[in-house]
Amino acid sequence: MRLIISIFVLINTSKSLLSFPAIVPQQDKTVKELIALAEESEKSGNANQAVYYYDKVANIYWKLGGYNNAQVYFEKALENVVKVGNKNGEKVLYTNLGFLFVEQSDYPKAIKSFEKALGIASAMGKKLEVGQILLNISNAQIEQGEYQMAIAKLNQAQSIAQEVGDLKLLRNIYYNFNRAYDKLSNPEKAQEYFNFYAALTKKIQAEEIRQKEQLAKAMVDSAGRVVQQFAQEKDQTVKKLAETSKELQARKQTLQDVEKQTREQQMQIDLLNAEMQLRDVEIRHQKLLQQVYIGIIVISLVIAAVISYLYIGKRKANRMLAKKNAEISQQRDAISRQAEELRELNALKDKLFSIIAHDLRSPLFSLITMLNIAKEGHFSPENFKQVLDELSVNVNHTTALLENLLTWAKNQMQGTKVNPQNFDLHELVNSKILLLNDAATSKEVKLINSVPEGAIIYADKDMTDIVVHNLISNAIKFCNAGDKINVWSFTGGGTVTVCVEDTGIGMPPEVMEKLFGSQITSTPGTRNEKGTGLGLILCKEFIEMNGGEIWADSQLGKGSKFFFSLPAIKV
Q1: Is 523:508 a contact under the CB 8 Å cutoff?
Q2: Which residue from 30, 173, 409, 475 has the highest number of Cβ atoms inside 10 Å of its Cβ?
Q3: pLDDT for 331-356, tens place per residue?
Q4: Structural domain count of the chain
Q5: Residue 464: which domain range?
Q6: Which CATH number covers residue 31?
Q7: Which residues, other chains included, contact 12 with Cβ-Cβ below 8 Å and sequence gap of 6+?
Q8: In this structure, is residue 86 part of a structural domain?
Q9: Residue where a domain terminates, one of 155, 185, 215
Q10: At which of 185, 220, 249 does a domain end?
């Protein structure tokens, strides 16, 4: 029975072709961190480090079956490895791309990648790697039915394998010869190369067994020598310890005898001296005790007075210092807050003037220019209608920009007073859908009001109107023909939560992170519609002023959901 084995040299054996585990949050976090490190390395000019991180990201995606992402990051690694002129790294990356395409059965791309790796390996004079890459190319050619071309590559690889003496490579070459001739219906040649393959396999296995036996024998011999050496060292150590113990015992006995004689003589001398000095000591002791007692009493009184005075003064100074520190800390915090507010207001002012200079001046100049040209009679009726349609879009954009700018500026400079009242959310959404229906119809987008009738909100109606208008306008901006926008709500916990949900293009995570920030940013719509960048800032400010919250959820290519919550009906 013919043995069927798929041979790919240098394939990472940890990649399973049967199934791939889904990416887990920790892996997703690791991939994002690696991509961030790679991009930072690129910006700082460290192309070698960028290659390392991009290669790790590509291998993670490859292992998890994300072939498209793996290809993207292998190619990013290639861009950086070419910058530093690392030919060996370029060869490895082209080889990995070849294996990646093989796993996707895209054999033409696999062969193209292997051939680029082959050219580099040949230029570097690495014959063994040239033979291995030729084997990989032949395998892909066999898979896509180019049997004669595969045999030509195998003949080249066979010459190299015989020249360098690599039996394993030669065995794999014989196996591919067997596959190619079998596909060409040449059983004699197929059997011949299969016999070569089987003979080499047995030889390689026998050599591996012999090497393992030699290694095991060498390890046993080495262990025996070590045990014998330990035994000899143990005997010598025991003998030395016995001799040392005897010597120490003799010295100990001598020292004990000398100490005994010295102690007895010293005791006699001390006894005589003690008897002679005992009387004098007793007299002096009595006088000294009297003087010490008097001195202790005087010193104790002085120390107590000094400590009491210092403690009172220190406590008073600490209270004053704590009070001053608290005042300084409050002043510093207030100054820091004011400075931060001034910086933010200055940045907003600059951004505001930039928007006014660009987004207002351009449409107004276009209007003036068109009116002058029309006045001079340079437009035909058809051209005039076309220009008028385009100008209408610009004027609508300019009107929306002015409304948001004026509302935002009033809120920033004068402060907007909140006037909460009970109102019907369903009716408000209906009015906004009627107002924006023409814009949605022009893009073939359907607007749906799923807010239940009788859903009452207690908030400022004008502010809520602006929020709903902005959110529906944004949804239309990022929808394509055939998409839907559904406004729905639910009540619970004393609040009404409203959602503006669309099936549009969605947002990537990096855009989501910037939503509702203090910086003014704008993204063009699906038909390159312009935005003011103020809409979501206004929405956030108005919702929070009414005691609510606003947030969003989106997936790229699957649409977006914008939520906000406001207090329910107040009885």
Answers
A1: no
A2: 173
A3: 888 888 877 767 766 665 665 555 55
A4: 2
A5: 417-567
A6: 1.25.40.10
A7: 59, 62, 63
A8: yes
A9: 185
A10: 185
**pTM (predicted TM-score):** 0.39
Phi and psi at 28, nearest 5°, equal -60, -40
Question: At 455, which CATH number?
Answer: 3.30.565.10
Q: Which residue has the tokens 């004393």?
A: 494
**For residue 248, is it within any domain?**
no
* Residue 169: CB atoms within 10 Å: 22
357: which DSSP letter?
I
Task: Please write the tens of the pLDDT for every residue from 116-144.
Answer: 999 999 999 999 999 999 999 999 999 99
Which tokens go with 280?
């004098």
| pLDDT, tens digit (0-9, with 9 covering 90-100), for 441-456 | 999 999 999 999 989 9
Is residue 196 a contact partner of residue 158, using CB atoms and an 8 Å limit? no
Dmax (CA) of the chain: 142
Instruction: Judge contact between 480 and 443, C-beta under 8 A.
Output: yes
552 φ, ψ (degrees, to nearest 5): -145, 160
Tokens of 308: 């009491």
8 Å CB contact between 458 and 421: yes
Place of tokens 């005039």: 384
Q: Is the dihedral of CA 545, 549, 555, 557 positive or negative?
A: negative
- Neighbouring C-beta atoms of residue 7, cutoff 10 Å: 16
Q: How far is CA 49 from CA 34, 60, 103, 363, in A?
A: 11, 17, 28, 47
Tokens encoding 278? 């005992």
Position 500 in a domain: yes
Any domain includes 394: no
Rounded CA separation 137/180 (Å): 13
What residues are paired with 484 via a beta bridge? 446
